[in-house]
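User: Fold this; tokens only.

Assistant: Input:
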Amino acid sequence: MRELDQLFGRYLDRDWRQSSPAQRDVFLRLLESQDDKLWHWFMGHERSDDAQLQALVDHIRTLPP
């Protein structure tokens, strides 16, 4: 989904370089999630049961365009 690609690109451009290995692992786990789940999480229709994934989703959603 193009919208998700844009959100992920924004994160990679702004945060990836200074992220810790643990933070990078959370992002990589996020990428393994199903597209429909990602869409619902990023649109705020659902929340992830995984607190680390949800915290990252929340962070990415707040990044300026």
